[in-house]
Amino acid sequence: MNTKVILLVLGLLAGGLTGYVTRPESAEINLPGLNIQITGEGRAESGGKLTSDQWQHIGIFAAIGAIIGLGLGFVVGGGRRI
User: Fold this and answer.
1) In a domain, 41, yes or no
2) Which of 18, 43, 53, 81 is the most exposed place for a label (fewest CB within 10 A)?
3) Would 7 be classed as within a structural domain?
4) Quick check: 21 and 70 in contact, CB under 8 A?
5) Is residue 2 part of a domain?
6) What is the value of pTM for the model shown?
7) Which residue ranges does UniProt annotate as crossing the membrane (predicted)?
């Protein structure tokens, strides 16, 4: 398999796992030009159902992990074509 694809998948999984473990009950992310508010029902560590906001949190972390993994794939692969 291609190194870029492997690192992309590993980054996606690592980001998703990180997002799941760190899902907040309520959080707000403020960046210039971008405001994201994430709130959930109950405590995040209660093991209950995930809310749509918590899924959004997990998805954001998974996307960031995938981007980092793909970037590492290009660095490790020497920038060769896919």
Assistant:
1) no
2) 81
3) yes
4) no
5) yes
6) 0.70
7) 55-76
Q: Count Cβ atoms within 10 A of the Cβ of residue 20 and give its class: 0-12 exposed, 13-18 middle, 19 or more buried.
A: middle
Instruction: Evaluate whether residue 12 is within a structural domain.
Output: yes
Q: pLDDT tens for residues 40-82?
A: 555 566 566 776 777 888 899 999 999 999 999 888 877 555 5
Query: Contact, 81 vs 30, CB < 8 A?
Result: no
Q: Which domain holds residue 73?
A: 1-24+51-82
Q: What is the DSSP string of 6-70?
A: HHHHHHHHHHHHHHHHT--SEEEEEETTEEEEEE-SS-GGG--PPPHHHHHHHHHHHHHHHHHHH
d(C-alpha 2, C-alpha 77), whole Å: 9
- Rounded Cα distance between 17 and 30, Å, is 23
Tokens encoding 35: 């405001």
